[in-house]
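A common beginner's mistake is to predict each chain separately and then try to dock the pieces by hand. The better habit, illustrated here, is to supply every component at once so that their relative placement is modeled jointly.
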Amino acid sequence: MIVSRRPTLSLRFVALAYLALLLLLPVGVVFWRTFEHGVATAWSYVTTPAAISAFWLTVLLAVIAVPLNTIFGVGAAMVLARSKARGKSVLDGLIDLPFVVSPVIVGLALILVYGQGGWFADVFQNNGIQIIYAVPGMVIATVFVSLPFVVREVTPVLREVGDEQEEAAATLGASSWQTFWRVTLPTIRWGVAYGVVLTTARALGEIGAVLVVSSNVPGATLTLPLLLYQRDSQIGSQVTTSVYALATELAVLSIAVLLLMTLFGSRREEAR
Amino acid sequence: MLYMGVFVLIPLAAVVVKAFSSGLGTLWSSVDNTLAVRALVITLVASLLVAAIGAVMGTLVAWVLVRDSFPGKRFVNALIDLPFALPTIVAGLTLIALYGPDSPVGIHLAYTRGAVVVALLFVTLPFVVRSVQPVLLELDREVEEAAASLGASNATTFRRIVLPALRPAILSGAALAFARSIGEFGSLALIAGKVQIASLVIYADIENGSEQSAAALSAVLMLVALLMLFVLRRAGATVDR
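With all components supplied together, the output reads:
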């Protein structure tokens, strides 16, 4: 299709204007509002005890959920791409569930299973372990919502490269463990990396599921997104600089993630 | 499978069991109260609208990113992933900052249905763009040139040649955006205000301790989402072929 100069320019203008209005301007305004009263003011808001503990809890959730989902994700991708086991298509369908189930429903589900009067409540309560309204529940919620990313990134790569190299390694006497570490993992590494970055982004930013199972106590079970939500819903319509400062802190974290995404994404494309 | 079971399947089963725990009659009556029905209708209408606008604008953006070239294109391309990277609560807040009560441009959209649609467009932007882009890259331009040389106008070429090739990708991207929209919570939590969105109603129910009606509404939402997932896999199957 040969589009002449003027329609091309107007299409470009429409696309860029849409992106600017939807993405760039709103994010820009948050940055502007954050530093409206100077960098020092903004910094003092993100270094309050509540903000610092929320930061570390957010990091903790990601640090637990990401490795778990990476190991599961690579394993599940191997099953989906390589094994001929029955029930494979069932697993394939179920993996996407966390993407289509509302995060709030995830939280509700966890309460019904692990909460007061829940299915497994007795098991944990007798041992004095509290899951709901405590950190373990928030970890489970985070694992749930960020589960599919690694599987979905790695499976197509594994399918595409085929298993000839793995078979060659096996005929040369490599154990399956050696084959995995020396042949399979290097070929899928950019896919894994991209999946890990997506998982991290989701784990850092999750609110719906975590909100439902958190007790909303600052310093104990508030992550950064939750602290932000609590601050803003308290104040009502008046959004203050402290809220904007927290938002900017989260935005900076996620822009770092975005840079990694761009980097790994292009490496992944090249590797194909 | 065990991992999936512990983290995903058992909890979701609990919701369904809870929804049906007092029989079908109670399930229906808790869905059938006006608030729940209105929330469902608003959510579905907003999601359909978002899927439709997202499909058109997403295809347009993908087109510009693939066929056009201009300085800063790589930056714009990276920008598309921003909604995936940005925590949804921040996404909601950014829209309040620009279109809210103390908006620097004087547009007061926050706490209305319009704001809900804009927030959903924000968080679902990458779906259509990222599913159309690779298909458009692979598309054989010679066919388009042949159509043009046979006297087809650009509009005809697009409608008869390009669109059919892109349709599966557009549909699967829009379906993903729709599925995401009906369950979206984070970006709407701050901006929806008094607009009753299904996920916000479920959250309010949980907070009030009425787990029964929360579970009932959840079961209906999950059913819609699962239908979408099914449609999606069918659309995906046509892409592979």
